[in-house]
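subagent[fold] <- orchestrator: predict structure for attached chain, return C-alpha coordinates only, no commentary.
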Amino acid sequence: MDTTQEQQFNEIKNNLATVKQRIVDTCQRMGRDPTSVRLLPVTKTVPAEKLRLAYAAGCHEMGENKIQEAREKFEALNDLDIKWAVIGHLQTNKAKYLARFASEFQALDSLKVAAELDKRLQNEGRAIDVYVQVNSSDEESKFGLPPEAVRDFVKELPSYSSLRIKGLMTLAIFSSDHDRVRECFIKMREIQAMLRQEAPSGLSFDELSMGMSGDYELAIEEGATVVRVGQAIFGKRPLPDSHYWPGLG
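subagent[fold] -> orchestrator:
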Protein backbone atom coordinates (compact mmCIF):
# COMPACT_ATOMS: atom_id res chain seq x y z
CA MET A 1 0.00 0.00 0.00
CA ASP A 2 1.61 3.29 -1.10
CA THR A 3 1.27 6.60 0.75
CA THR A 4 -1.77 7.76 -1.22
CA GLN A 5 -3.56 4.45 -0.71
CA GLU A 6 -2.73 4.49 2.98
CA GLN A 7 -4.17 7.99 3.27
CA GLN A 8 -7.35 6.94 1.45
CA PHE A 9 -7.65 3.82 3.59
CA ASN A 10 -7.35 5.84 6.80
CA GLU A 11 -9.89 8.43 5.60
CA ILE A 12 -12.43 5.72 4.73
CA LYS A 13 -11.80 3.86 7.98
CA ASN A 14 -12.19 7.03 10.08
CA ASN A 15 -15.29 8.18 8.18
CA LEU A 16 -16.82 4.73 8.52
CA ALA A 17 -16.19 4.75 12.26
CA THR A 18 -17.77 8.21 12.56
CA VAL A 19 -20.91 7.18 10.67
CA LYS A 20 -21.25 3.97 12.69
CA GLN A 21 -20.87 5.91 15.95
CA ARG A 22 -23.55 8.41 14.88
CA ILE A 23 -25.87 5.49 14.12
CA VAL A 24 -25.21 4.05 17.57
CA ASP A 25 -25.72 7.44 19.24
CA THR A 26 -29.01 8.05 17.42
CA CYS A 27 -30.30 4.58 18.23
CA GLN A 28 -29.43 4.94 21.89
CA ARG A 29 -31.13 8.33 22.03
CA MET A 30 -34.28 6.77 20.56
CA GLY A 31 -34.14 3.65 22.75
CA ARG A 32 -33.39 1.44 19.74
CA ASP A 33 -30.94 -1.43 19.47
CA PRO A 34 -28.05 -0.17 17.29
CA THR A 35 -27.87 -3.58 15.62
CA SER A 36 -31.37 -2.96 14.23
CA VAL A 37 -29.91 -0.47 11.70
CA ARG A 38 -27.82 -1.71 8.78
CA LEU A 39 -25.35 0.61 7.11
CA LEU A 40 -25.22 0.21 3.33
CA PRO A 41 -22.20 2.08 1.91
CA VAL A 42 -23.12 3.71 -1.42
CA THR A 43 -20.20 3.46 -3.82
CA LYS A 44 -21.34 5.26 -6.96
CA THR A 45 -18.49 7.11 -8.70
CA VAL A 46 -15.95 5.52 -6.31
CA PRO A 47 -13.35 3.68 -8.42
CA ALA A 48 -12.82 -0.04 -7.92
CA GLU A 49 -9.26 0.42 -6.60
CA LYS A 50 -10.59 2.64 -3.82
CA LEU A 51 -13.30 0.09 -3.04
CA ARG A 52 -10.60 -2.49 -2.38
CA LEU A 53 -9.38 -0.18 0.37
CA ALA A 54 -12.97 0.24 1.59
CA TYR A 55 -13.35 -3.52 1.76
CA ALA A 56 -10.19 -3.75 3.85
CA ALA A 57 -11.63 -1.02 6.08
CA GLY A 58 -14.77 -3.10 6.69
CA CYS A 59 -17.21 -2.31 3.85
CA HIS A 60 -18.40 -5.75 2.78
CA GLU A 61 -21.77 -4.57 1.41
CA MET A 62 -21.94 -1.97 -1.35
CA GLY A 63 -24.85 -0.19 -3.00
CA GLU A 64 -24.82 1.10 -6.58
CA ASN A 65 -27.34 3.35 -8.26
CA LYS A 66 -26.65 2.42 -11.89
CA ILE A 67 -26.67 -1.20 -13.03
CA GLN A 68 -23.83 -0.74 -15.52
CA GLU A 69 -21.53 0.72 -12.87
CA ALA A 70 -22.51 -2.03 -10.44
CA ARG A 71 -21.81 -4.71 -13.04
CA GLU A 72 -18.38 -3.31 -13.88
CA LYS A 73 -17.37 -3.10 -10.22
CA PHE A 74 -18.68 -6.59 -9.50
CA GLU A 75 -16.46 -7.94 -12.28
CA ALA A 76 -13.44 -5.90 -11.17
CA LEU A 77 -13.82 -6.96 -7.52
CA ASN A 78 -15.09 -10.50 -8.04
CA ASP A 79 -12.25 -11.91 -5.93
CA LEU A 80 -13.72 -10.16 -2.85
CA ASP A 81 -16.75 -11.39 -0.91
CA ILE A 82 -18.94 -8.32 -1.46
CA LYS A 83 -22.74 -8.29 -1.29
CA TRP A 84 -24.00 -5.95 -4.00
CA ALA A 85 -27.24 -4.00 -3.75
CA VAL A 86 -28.73 -2.13 -6.71
CA ILE A 87 -30.53 0.87 -5.24
CA GLY A 88 -31.52 2.83 -8.35
CA HIS A 89 -34.13 2.62 -11.08
CA LEU A 90 -33.91 -0.50 -13.26
CA GLN A 91 -34.98 -0.72 -16.89
CA THR A 92 -36.60 -4.00 -17.88
CA ASN A 93 -33.87 -4.79 -20.42
CA LYS A 94 -31.19 -4.53 -17.70
CA ALA A 95 -32.85 -7.05 -15.35
CA LYS A 96 -30.75 -9.89 -16.81
CA TYR A 97 -27.56 -8.22 -15.55
CA LEU A 98 -28.88 -7.60 -12.04
CA ALA A 99 -30.07 -11.21 -11.80
CA ARG A 100 -26.52 -12.51 -12.28
CA PHE A 101 -24.79 -10.85 -9.36
CA ALA A 102 -26.92 -8.66 -7.06
CA SER A 103 -27.97 -9.85 -3.62
CA GLU A 104 -30.51 -7.08 -3.22
CA PHE A 105 -32.66 -4.73 -5.30
CA GLN A 106 -34.07 -1.72 -3.49
CA ALA A 107 -35.98 0.11 -6.21
CA LEU A 108 -38.90 -2.05 -7.37
CA ASP A 109 -41.79 0.12 -8.57
CA SER A 110 -43.01 -1.72 -11.69
CA LEU A 111 -44.74 -5.05 -12.23
CA LYS A 112 -43.08 -5.32 -15.65
CA VAL A 113 -39.68 -5.14 -13.95
CA ALA A 114 -40.86 -7.60 -11.28
CA ALA A 115 -41.91 -10.11 -13.95
CA GLU A 116 -38.72 -9.77 -15.98
CA LEU A 117 -36.45 -9.90 -12.95
CA ASP A 118 -38.26 -12.94 -11.58
CA LYS A 119 -37.90 -14.72 -14.94
CA ARG A 120 -34.18 -13.91 -15.15
CA LEU A 121 -33.57 -15.00 -11.55
CA GLN A 122 -35.35 -18.28 -12.15
CA ASN A 123 -33.09 -18.85 -15.16
CA GLU A 124 -30.09 -18.24 -12.89
CA GLY A 125 -31.49 -20.45 -10.13
CA ARG A 126 -31.32 -17.54 -7.70
CA ALA A 127 -33.54 -15.40 -5.47
CA ILE A 128 -32.76 -11.94 -4.09
CA ASP A 129 -34.04 -9.57 -1.41
CA VAL A 130 -36.25 -6.82 -2.81
CA TYR A 131 -37.58 -3.53 -1.47
CA VAL A 132 -40.54 -1.66 -2.96
CA GLN A 133 -39.67 1.96 -3.75
CA VAL A 134 -42.17 4.62 -2.70
CA ASN A 135 -42.16 8.26 -3.80
CA SER A 136 -42.75 9.67 -0.33
CA SER A 137 -42.09 13.28 -1.37
CA ASP A 138 -44.66 13.28 -4.21
CA GLU A 139 -42.13 14.84 -6.56
CA GLU A 140 -42.85 14.13 -10.22
CA SER A 141 -39.16 13.84 -11.07
CA LYS A 142 -38.62 10.91 -8.70
CA PHE A 143 -39.09 7.22 -9.28
CA GLY A 144 -41.16 5.14 -6.90
CA LEU A 145 -44.82 4.33 -6.42
CA PRO A 146 -47.22 6.99 -5.20
CA PRO A 147 -48.13 6.11 -1.59
CA GLU A 148 -51.75 5.47 -2.54
CA ALA A 149 -50.69 2.85 -5.13
CA VAL A 150 -48.57 0.72 -2.81
CA ARG A 151 -51.37 -1.45 -1.39
CA ASP A 152 -52.59 -2.71 -4.79
CA PHE A 153 -49.03 -3.10 -6.12
CA VAL A 154 -48.01 -5.30 -3.21
CA LYS A 155 -50.99 -7.62 -3.74
CA GLU A 156 -49.46 -8.71 -7.06
CA LEU A 157 -46.00 -9.57 -5.71
CA PRO A 158 -46.63 -13.16 -4.50
CA SER A 159 -46.68 -14.12 -8.20
CA TYR A 160 -42.91 -13.59 -8.37
CA SER A 161 -41.34 -16.30 -6.23
CA SER A 162 -37.70 -15.31 -6.81
CA LEU A 163 -38.30 -11.87 -5.29
CA ARG A 164 -38.00 -12.04 -1.50
CA ILE A 165 -39.93 -8.95 -0.46
CA LYS A 166 -38.26 -7.48 2.61
CA GLY A 167 -39.54 -3.94 2.95
CA LEU A 168 -39.79 -0.44 1.53
CA MET A 169 -37.30 2.13 0.22
CA THR A 170 -37.59 5.86 -0.30
CA LEU A 171 -35.67 9.02 -1.12
CA ALA A 172 -36.86 11.87 1.07
CA ILE A 173 -37.22 15.38 -0.27
CA PHE A 174 -33.83 17.05 -0.69
CA SER A 175 -34.29 20.00 1.66
CA SER A 176 -32.57 21.76 4.54
CA ASP A 177 -35.98 21.91 6.24
CA HIS A 178 -35.83 18.93 8.60
CA ASP A 179 -39.57 18.98 9.16
CA ARG A 180 -40.23 18.42 5.46
CA VAL A 181 -37.68 15.60 5.35
CA ARG A 182 -39.14 14.02 8.47
CA GLU A 183 -42.64 14.05 6.93
CA CYS A 184 -41.38 11.71 4.19
CA PHE A 185 -40.01 9.27 6.75
CA ILE A 186 -43.17 9.39 8.86
CA LYS A 187 -45.24 8.64 5.76
CA MET A 188 -43.09 5.57 5.11
CA ARG A 189 -43.54 4.34 8.66
CA GLU A 190 -47.30 4.67 8.26
CA ILE A 191 -47.27 2.72 4.97
CA GLN A 192 -45.13 0.05 6.62
CA ALA A 193 -47.63 -0.29 9.49
CA MET A 194 -50.50 -0.68 7.00
CA LEU A 195 -48.67 -3.33 4.99
CA ARG A 196 -47.77 -5.32 8.08
CA GLN A 197 -51.50 -5.69 8.64
CA GLU A 198 -52.70 -6.11 5.07
CA ALA A 199 -49.91 -7.50 2.87
CA PRO A 200 -50.26 -11.04 1.48
CA SER A 201 -48.66 -13.77 3.53
CA GLY A 202 -45.05 -14.56 2.63
CA LEU A 203 -44.13 -10.92 2.11
CA SER A 204 -42.20 -9.09 4.83
CA PHE A 205 -42.24 -5.36 5.40
CA ASP A 206 -39.98 -5.27 8.44
CA GLU A 207 -37.28 -3.28 6.62
CA LEU A 208 -37.33 0.46 5.91
CA SER A 209 -34.48 1.68 3.72
CA MET A 210 -34.39 5.45 4.07
CA GLY A 211 -31.86 8.10 4.89
CA MET A 212 -28.67 9.13 3.11
CA SER A 213 -25.55 11.06 4.14
CA GLY A 214 -27.46 14.26 4.91
CA ASP A 215 -30.46 12.84 6.73
CA TYR A 216 -29.78 9.32 8.00
CA GLU A 217 -30.07 10.31 11.66
CA LEU A 218 -33.56 11.73 11.05
CA ALA A 219 -34.45 8.53 9.22
CA ILE A 220 -33.30 6.39 12.14
CA GLU A 221 -35.41 8.50 14.47
CA GLU A 222 -38.44 7.57 12.34
CA GLY A 223 -37.72 3.86 12.07
CA ALA A 224 -35.15 3.27 9.32
CA THR A 225 -33.56 -0.16 9.43
CA VAL A 226 -31.23 0.46 6.46
CA VAL A 227 -29.39 3.74 5.81
CA ARG A 228 -27.66 4.32 2.48
CA VAL A 229 -24.56 6.44 3.08
CA GLY A 230 -22.04 7.41 0.42
CA GLN A 231 -20.44 10.83 0.68
CA ALA A 232 -20.08 10.74 4.47
CA ILE A 233 -17.85 7.67 3.96
CA PHE A 234 -16.13 8.29 0.61
CA GLY A 235 -16.17 12.09 0.33
CA LYS A 236 -17.89 14.40 -2.13
CA ARG A 237 -18.68 13.09 -5.60
CA PRO A 238 -17.38 14.78 -8.75
CA LEU A 239 -20.93 15.34 -10.01
CA PRO A 240 -23.98 16.60 -8.10
CA ASP A 241 -26.51 14.16 -6.65
CA SER A 242 -29.02 15.20 -9.33
CA HIS A 243 -26.88 13.25 -11.81
CA TYR A 244 -27.67 10.04 -9.91
CA TRP A 245 -30.98 10.71 -8.13
CA PRO A 246 -33.75 12.38 -10.16
CA GLY A 247 -35.22 15.32 -8.31
CA LEU A 248 -32.18 16.22 -6.24
CA GLY A 249 -29.84 19.15 -6.50
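orchestrator: received. Logging for downstream: The chain has one domain: 3-234. The first helix runs from residue 3 to 30.
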